[in-house]
Amino acid sequence: MSLPYLHPYLGLSNGLNTLHAAGGPGGAVGGWVELARTTLGSAGDDIDVNNFADKRYLMILSYRIPSGDIDTEDKVGTSASIDTGSNYAYRRSENGGADGANAPTTSFFVQDLGASKNYNTFNVGYIANYSSKEKLGINHIVTRGSAGAGTAPNRCENVAKWANTSSSLQSYRAHNGRSGNYDTGSEVVVLGYDPADSHTNNFWEELASVELSSPADQISSGTITAKKYLWIQAYYKGHTDVSSFDSGLRVGNTTLDSASNYSWRESTNGATDTTSTSTSRMTTAGTGYIGNGILNFYNGFIINNASNEKLIVSHIISEQTAGATTAPTRREHVGKWTNTSNQIDIVGIVRQSGTGNFAAGATIKVWGAD
Description:
It is globular and about 60 Å long. The chain is built from 1 helix and 30 strands. Residues 1-28 have low confidence and may be disordered. The chain folds into 2 domains: 21-26 and 204-369, Jelly Rolls (Sandwich), CATH 2.60.120; 33-193. The chain has one helix spanning 18-21, and strands at 5-6, 13-14, 33-39, 46-49, 57-64, 66-67, 72-73, 75-77, 88-94, 100-105, 110-111, 121-128, 135-143, 154-162, 171-175, 181-182, 187-193, 205-211, 218-220, 229-237, 246-253, 255-256, 262-268, 274-279, 282-283, 295-303, 310-318, 329-337, 346-352, 363-369.
């Protein structure tokens, strides 16, 4: 089974063997490179990352620790300054609710759940950054909610544009518009990719690549080097022996945690969000179970600070039925692992309920970065 994944070195969809053909970690090809980051040394309303290199595509990783109530009202700008004018438009959905749109407005990526929001927040965003075109962005946000596995996290899907067509985007501001502050340790990391790049200092380091040689009821990364940011991809299908076979993501320190230390929120095919609390895994199947031979692809990101609950943003697609006559299913998923004393150093896709195994060829890959 060949895995078409989002290549962290090329920024494209490729087969598994492309990674090593392209030079692998630290290879002689360009990929996502860290352009700049700002980590707050004291509490404040703004995290500014200024005057970074001009790249065609940007990836934004942001982790915001609250001191009081916070939200997301981010802005962007040129190498010279942040644009604080009404030159943006956005559309968003929070917790699967109806879309809200705002145009023109003074913010790019936005989240505000309305009530008290003294919660850690993890953002993963992408921006197309052609200097002569309006800048288009996609952002996915997970907020912790109240501490503990008894409360599901919140999520936000956000698309936005910056109407500037004369300059590239080379500055980013994470802005808080509520009464609190972003606390010490909050940070924004800006990554860039350009097809012409040939650097060797890729941001994402491959930590694990595991493929099942025979059917099994789980596929694990094994012990990996713990990193602040993790990127997980898995491609798998049910073996011929499956029966009502669900699957789930588990994480852990040294061993996979199978206790009720997870909670999650998700939408399937755009339906109203469902939540699960104090559960033993997070969802990875595109529908309710893994069928015989039905392909599934999982793509997710984790913020992995030892002293904080681990927040996860992921997307899942399930083939359903082979051929073009049946549409695949999708899930937008956020989750958390409530451990606040260890970093994740092992991840796995496991059987949850039912009987049977994943088919040989099931694959999990993990990248990480500090």
